[in-house]
Amino acid sequence: MIQQLENLLQVSDINVSFGGLKALSNVNLSVPSNRVTAVIGPNGAGKTTLFNVISGFYSADSGSIQYEKMDLLTMPAHSRSKIGISRTFQNIALFPGMSVLENIKLGAHAQLKTNVFSAAIYLGSAAREERAISERIYDRLLNLLELEDYADRSISGLPYGIQKRIELARALAGEPKLLMLDEPFAGMNTAEKANMANHMRQIIERTNITVLLIDHDMESIMSIADSISVLNFGSLIASGTPSEIQKNPAVIDAYLGEE
What we know:
Blueprint: E1 7-18, E2 21-32, E3 36-40, H1 47-55, E4 62-67, E5 70-71, H2 77-82, E6 85-87, H3 100-105, H4 116-121, H5 124-144, H6 160-173, E7 178-182, H7 190-206, E8 210-214, H8 218-224, E9 227-232, E10 235-240, H9 242-247, H10 249-256
Parallel strand pairs: 3-8, 3-9, 6-7, 7-8
Antiparallel strand pairs: 1-2, 1-4, 4-5, 9-10
């Protein structure tokens, strides 16, 4: 008997319109806990719109999104990071004037327990918490993503593949339950893609993180995803395992092609 996986995230009948344009139409998506779920589709299919609705940057016209039995659509965007949702963006958004470690530490900001006043003047509790975050990042993330040698270096001038790993580390710094990756392989060469995929597999194996990602690199997607959902013109046209998606006639016709 196949074990029924518990869903960390359940997207149900989501509709999003911009003016007269229907960006998402009755989209349903199940994201099982401790698995990698990928969303693929042609440009303009609605992938990033779906990500933006889940993370709170866009509002849905109708539908529901349940995360650990909480209704995400009733929460402001800044609250979602506090309940364990973190994401990266398609375009790298690091701060070039700051060090690698400082950039990564920004990802833990939503989890800080000290108040704004204490943090601003760096009182004892704020200082202790900041040191604890730095130690955790050194012990876990820098080692896991092979970034130890870059910790005190400025972002400026670092190779693109390294910057993508730094952005991934920043998203992980808040210890999320759901990690949303927006085109993690974009702009990378073959070696960088393989390196990133290897790091992602290690993260998934060593943590209890659930991953939801979108990307156009089919080789990387097929090698790392447990399940794939396919969007086309804002509608879900297929869901299944990588092997099922590769053989699906509707997906081949709309996106993958005969090759």
